[in-house]
Amino acid sequence: MKKDVAQNFILELKVSTSTAKKELLINFRYPLWVIFWAIMPVFWLAPLVFQGQALIGGRSSTSFAMLSGNSDFITFNIVGSSLYAYVMSALWGMGLSLRREQWSGTLETLMVSPCNKFFILLGKAVSDSMLTTFYALVQFILASLLFGAKIKLENLAYAIFVLLLMIFALYGVGFLLSGVILMYKEPGALLNFVNTFISIICPVNYPLKALVFVFESIGYYLLIAGLIFPLTPALEAIRALLLPSFDPFIGTTLALTYLVVVSVVLLFLGTFLFNYAERKARKAGTLGTY
Amino acid sequence: MDAVDELKVVLAVAKKELKLYLRYPVWVLFDALMPLLWVLSSIIYSKALVGSSYSTYLASLANTGDYVSFIVVGMIVSSFAFSTLWGMSYALRGEQWSGTLETTFLAPCSRFSILLGKAFSSMLTTSLWVILQLILSTLVFNLRINFINLPIALFLLLIALPSFLGIGFSLAGIVLEFKEHNAFVNFLTALFSLLLPISYPLVVLPPFLRYFSYLLPPTYAIEGMRNVLILDSSLGDLINLILPLLFFDVFWLLFGSIVFLMEEKRVMKKGALGYY
Hints:
The complex is a heterodimer of chains A (290) and B (276).
Chain A: H1 2-28, H2 31-56, H3 62-68, H4 73-94, H5 97-104, H6 107-111, H7 117-147, H8 156-184, H9 188-201, H10 210-215, H11 217-228, H12 231-242, H13 252-284
Helix pairs in contact in A: 1-7, 2-4, 2-7, 4-7, 4-8, 4-9, 4-12, 7-8, 8-12, 8-13, 12-13
Chain B: H1 3-22, H2 25-50, H3 56-62, H4 67-98, H5 101-106, H6 111-141, H7 150-178, H8 182-195, H9 207-213, H10 217-229, H11 239-270
């Protein structure tokens, strides 16, 4: 019995690896898109750097230092936008993965395959995080070369550990979205909105305390909403590890504990919602409807 | 068809596009909200950097330290430029997605009337969101612009629009030939966001990038609008911005029309109009 379970699990894992391989193959068949996604984030980052330089005349801001302990807004932004790539991937990659199968007309075939659909999603998530890691790395290196990043390299291994925790939590977000999109189909407007909203409430480009600084009492609610999303604790912990003199809003231990808990909760919720959406779509016969 | 008939085509296409647009209320809501969120994000970032609502360094570069007005005016003009980029590139691709491109091309009217109709509808909706942006920025962030000069600003925008349309025509032609427009227009949008003085004056850009900025008509429109709405300049003071805009109007309209006609001819000859 135990042997059967183990064998079954290995087979399911093969589904994940095949799916991941297929997704990577498809992606690399469009090299222009790969180059586009690797380079574009630098184009999005550059205006923020120039805007900062136009406002304060250098790379050191006393106001930034008051809000986060770190005055170097350029390194702050490079780290923030590199990590934000994973959120984009969870939303547009994992979230849209089944919708893309629908566009290609392969969703129904995929859904009748004799395997646990969770492992298909897992394969898609793994390929997405591999690609995103490549994009984030290119972005980080390019941005560091162009604008200069001052980080504590000795803490890089710890930062990668926090990053992995965040990726697991974002898998949960991706599964949740897959389920929602399976039910409600066209996600363009929703994803665009969520994407921008997350970039506002999470400390991607500015310190978390900036929300309170600008909006006062309303800012506290936005700050709390931002803290719930896994990107915020991950950014706080990674910046605390990599940026000299960064003073995180939440302690690193608390951030790590929260990330572990939220990863489990989101993965559980995501899987549950996805299974529910799949069952509902099958029952209603809407898997193939567009 | 005479000019009046062509004008009727422009209006009919604009009406059709607006009807289609309003059939997707979630997208309408999204289009209304997004520019506000972008302004919001940019202002939070600026305030976090400066620590107050006035930047002395920006004042030394752009004659105004009021970054809220500086950014909002930049974003308003760029909204029109981006709406033309996306609207015109999507114009024919959208017809292709709906399977109506060939039918549209068979209509006995100028293709430019169809393109203009689509451009006008997207500009009309952009104008609505810009007004909303102005009202909310005034209420929430105490936007301080010279509202009395709005007619001059509008006049300046009207001078700039033909060049935006010309860029749109060339883009429509390119999309006709190369089909998938998303990556290309995304790239152009990012490039424009970098090169245009939307949230910073051009002087902070490296000199080699600045040369490219001066080749883009929205640069002059943004600078002109700022002069009128923030620095209280008169139309006469803007002659050094209006002249290049008029030049770009002629250049881009001619260039855009030639590119579109050439691409159209090539696609028709290859019989690739219906290709996906």
